[in-house]
Amino acid sequence: MSVRFIFLGFVTALMLSCSSTNNGNNNNNSSAFELVTPQQKATIIYDKNGPALDSIVAHLLAQDIELVSGYKPKVTTDLNSVSGNAILIGNQSSELLQSVLPSDMYRNTDWETYTIQLRENPFPKLKKALIIAGADPRGTAYGVFSISEKIGVSPWYWWADAIPQKQENLVLNLDPIQSKTPAVKFRGIFINDEDWGLQPWAEKTFEPETGDIGPKTYAKIFELLLRLRANTIWPAMHPGTRAFFHYPGNVKMVENYEIVLGSSHAEPMLRNNVDEWDHDVMGDFNYFTNRQNVLDYWEQRVAEAKKINGIYTLGMRGIHDSGMEGAKTTADAAQILNQVIGDQRKLLEKNIGNVEEIPQVFTVYKEVLDVYEYGLELPEDITLMWTDDNNGYIRRLSNAEERKRDGGSGVYYHASYWGRPHDYLWLSTTHPALIREELLKAYDTGADKIWILNVGDIKPAEYNTTLFMDLAFDPERFRQPDAYQNHMQDFYRSIFGAENSQQITGLRHAYYDLAWVRKPEFMGWSQTEPTRPTHLTEFEIDHFGNENQHRLDAYQQLTEGVDAIKKELSPAMQASFFQLVEYPIKGAAAMNAKFLNRDQAVYYAETNPKKATDAATQVQAAYDTIVALTEKYNRLENDKWNGIMDFKPRGLPVFELPDLKISKEKDTRAVREAAPLLIQNAASFVEAFGFEQDFPQQLTGLGYSGKAVQLAPATALRKNDTSLKNNPYLSYTLELKNALDKAALTLMTIPNHPITGQQHLQVGVQIDKGPVQIMDFETYGRSEEWKTNVLRNQSRKSVNLGSLKSGIHNLKIYSIDPGVLLDYFILTEMGTTLPYTLPKN
């Protein structure tokens, strides 16, 4: 059976395919390579003089072949001891490969690339050689793991127990392959907020000999990164986890696996301040008053790490994700940061070498963006690292001048977060459509030096981590707005087979759609920092088609779909299915059931006591379901994952059994009235005038409608014509059945931010021949408006259109700033209660 290789965006010049033969006959095709057959059992040879990573991936490939076929190939460095078929692994210029590669072979020395080719009789005893030649050690590793994927071994074979389909005979059919260099140079993860998963699991289950996230755990993490074609780590750094350099084995592992070591936005110069800054000995972490001690602290690490392949975070914040100590104003912070960065670069020059050749990053996170925009003398070779607002919306990207910087720019992005307005540490629900849109926007504005994803505990962010890394490797693959859907289906096909992938993808897509409207962790309508109690939701019961019950029904359908597919899967797939599909979907469904049924229990307390009692029973049942699901997770695979999953990170109120003692009077929805509405998706425009080619563009999956409209490319300039006469616009023909005395137009948009510091988020609106009114969706800092927006994943703005007669009207929406992403709009009487969701017309 020949299977086309499309998994995880693996990009090659030519196709690599695999045949599984059951009759044991030799394949006469010259492009066929027998890995495991009755006649041939390939040996794996790696260069004895090569880097440690060559040996590591050679042995992992043997393990992968055994996982699929049951046969574990011999691994050796002695070419003379091998006969028959062999896989040769090494650098393309290594002594081993030079002995078998033709002298006139094209050699690509580009960053992290590799060549794969077959050679007949390359050595007296060798019948056929499968040669994997890397331009550098990671290139070699990527080439090796591409073969692993080809035979059915997922990058998540260990981390998600994705067991490949068994094949007794393995025959590869391939033509020569030359890989492409990754689009983003440094691609990696930040392990963060590990207190409720990775750290307790490593301490008690996986690495008790260390009692922490140590070298054994990092070896598994680094292997995963290489299988995902990533190359960078920001290590775990919360209290309770010792600093990465505390364990010498960690340093050895990062060297052996050729992983680039960095540190978070709050940890300059590869230091872990939480664990390593001893206040009693060193004093305040304050550059204004304690400069020399801070410098000594940094220099000690630079000297220790000078031989490590590292990216140095420059600048200075507080000990742990807080503002700089001693800076009373933004001006203070900017002035001292210029000195800090200059001093840090002198340390690098002194201990390592030419500072302009050492990777350095300045991360403009939280308050640091204000300091940067106030004015910094930032050397041109330092990479600017832009960040999201912790909720998936990038705060700012490079303008035309910043794109000229030698150091370029990058992105720090969240798939998990602790902080205001509310954590989302439990389930991974950031919509793939949003990840695609935001990261392509970053790439198009020059952010191609470093991308880091905050993955929290790694699990359960398996899919979004894969998507992030594949976007970083080859953004062009995702140009079509629906490309992420094909990618998602490829992901599930590679693990659960073609016969199940479409249905699983549909379930997971619906899961992300529902979480777009409200994440499971946000269902208590509470906030944190400070932590506040939960409240009734805003999903209407009496009006708008009963939003509450509609959401309950949607999750019930997902749960039933999970159970139906589960019955069709083999026993070998059950553990992986539970981790990748069942737990997140059923967990989200139960969290929603807990709060939506509480709404009903309160709503019907006086009018329908039996219904209220039944709903209260469902609240308890939902809570019990989450507890049982989590207990099952931690017992999977003979307790392999014991401690990895906690259903109540930080013990926030949303995770508890909610109070059912809320009085009827607090449910204000019971006295609301719903006026007639006119609702229309922004994507359903009648005509578009003056737009650039290919715009406006409908963004599949984005927004409540799933069809948000992007008005202009990310690189477009703001249109500053105040008259708007030459601005492109969308035109909608509307029919009002009833006149409106005070018509209110409410636009719903994606709650993102201006693309550069030179733009806003403005559009103009005009009804008929009336005046054009400007609507601006920009928010500032951590304002209450921003909090509301990110909790509901939507921005809303309204304007008064005055009196409108019944009949036909024309609405124009003028494009001004390129960042605005329109979702839908509602036309109704001023003061009318609006639905939380997008009810159908």
Question: Quick gist of this model?
Answer:
By secondary structure, the chain is an alpha/beta fold. Helix content is about 30%, strand content about 20%. It has four domains: about 1-180, Chitobiase, domain 2; about 185-495, TIM Barrel (Alpha-Beta Barrel), CATH 3.20.20.520; about 505-670, Methane Monooxygenase Hydroxylase, Chain G, domain 1, CATH 1.20.58.2150; about 680-830, Jelly Rolls, CATH 2.60.120.
Measured as a percent range, the helix fraction is: 25-40%
Number of separate helices: 19
Distance between the termini: 49 Å
Mean pLDDT: 93
Could you state the CATH homologous superfamily of the largest domain? Glycosyl hydrolase family 115
- Count of strand segments: 29
**Global geometry:** globular
User: So, CATH architecture of the largest domain?
Assistant: Alpha-Beta Barrel
| Class inferred from helices and paired strands | alpha/beta
Summarize the biggest pleated sheet.
8 strands, parallel
Q: What do we call the CATH topology of the largest domain?
A: TIM Barrel
Q: What is the total number of structural domains? A: 4
Radius of gyration: 28 Å
The quaternary organization reads as single chain
Unreliable residue runs: 1-17, 19-28
Strand order of the largest sheet: 13-12-11-18-17-16-15-14
Question: What share of the residues does DSSP label as strand, in percent?
Answer: 15-25%
CATH class bucket of the largest domain: Alpha Beta
